UniProtKB/TrEMBL annotation:
Domain of life: Bacteria
Annotated protein name in UniProt: Transcription initiation protein
Gene3D superfamilies xrefs: Dimeric alpha+beta barrel
Stored InterPro entries: Dimeric_a/b-barrel
Amino acid sequence: MAKYLISFPSAAMLVPADELEAVGHAARAVIEESKAAGVYVFAGGINESVPPVLVSADGTTQESGYPWAPPLNGGFTVLELPSRDEAIAWAARIAKACRCSQELRVFQFDPQS
């Protein structure tokens, strides 16, 4: 089975403030369903109030991400599933709950990890 990343950037979630609570309940319900199905690995969101730290190969740090890359933010779910079709189905459930499109990516398997 492969692990799939289902994610969205913060800017994609255009939900009126008075609907955020309902979206949160719906999203948590899908996560609970994934746990009950035994496919849940991890879920969460980037804490955007804490700035990223870029750590170089020599160990020096600076408070930023890669200057040339788009910011990394939003919500993420990792599920372990037997097929891409099943991953698409779960991504659709998450998209419906969050009321925004989701990106689906597969992790490459590293047998030494």
